[in-house]
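Open question from group meeting: does this chain pack into something compact, or does most of it stay loose? Before anyone orders reagents, we agreed to write out a predicted structure and look at it together. Recording both the input and the output here so the notebook holds the full record.
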Amino acid sequence: MDTQQQLARWRLVLGKYSDQELSGGLGGNLPSGYSEIDELLDFLYSREYGAGRGIREGDGEDGSAGGLGPSQLTVPSWINKIQNLFPKETVERLERHALEKYGLTELLTDARVLEKLEPNMALLKQILSFKGMMNAEVLASARRIVEKVVEELTRKLENQVRSAVTGRRNRNSSTTFKSSRNLDFKRTIRRNLKHYDPEKRTLMLERVYFFQNLQRYNPWNIILCVDESGSMLENVVHAAVMAGIFSKLPAISTKLVIFDTEVVDLTGYASDPVEALMSVQLGGGTDIGKALAYCEGLVSTPSRTILVLISDLFDGAGYHAMYAHTASMIEAGVKVICLTALDSDCAGMYDKTAAKRLSSMGASVASLTPGELAGWVGEVIR
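Structure tokens returned:
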């Protein structure tokens, strides 16, 4: 890489306010191919300079360089150009910065622009945050993106969850999955008797039959109680997907409850994570005790009930009710797990004092990936 290319790259990193310092080495102009990149980056990152910040002599009050004129780019044209010019990972990062750092909400309120965005978890979270600003046309496009992301998450998690929760063998059904411990001798012999050779006294096996794995059918009740405050957004997404997967398992009855200072029962949408997510209203305070009181009312068979509380455990309404309802359910026989995070990173801030108190009562407190939660549920059920 020659000196001019190195200077040009530094120019892209530092932005237009480095022109004076770098113009000598660059001969006053960016090399061919760099100008368009500079325009696209400047369209987004010039927002870093507010009124009174980074303004130099000759610049306008809004921080734009004097004499250069306003950018000719619009949000739709910017999206088109970055998708043509940059690799996918860079495009996703630029889109995320536009939404999260610079509040470029036009990305989510213009159906043409929204259709061009790459479906991913970051975009899904922004859609859930801003869907209240969307008209019917944009909301329809947003729903299609939510469906794509949820479908991908479900595809990644479903087999893992089913495997973790699978129990004893089903002797009334066969499977194509071949495992020696699942070999159905009686059915194999009976179905192949017509291939018996009397002269050779040999039974020829045309097909071998195996038992199908089956979860214990005495139903378990799983209540997912999910904090929908903004800091828990990714956890809400994973909880909705997990509820959808659990709902497909015959030995599990799944209930989905979300809360802030109010409690909303989304059990009717537990099998439809897209509808559940589109029903979420983010924001507001947090009343964990109120949510647990509602969930306690859903318990009919405590010894076969699992309550999964997904929250950072910061209770804006005070902690007495949260501790009281948790203790009451544990004493009745409910298996309680408090997840301070349910996502791929298992990271997040939470109230460590509350976590210790709940743990001392007998609740399991952890940060888990969705797969690890499925494993924990499987262990309890078995």
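Observations to bring back to the group:
The chain has three domains: 3-139, 169-213, 220-381.
The radius of gyration is 28 Å.
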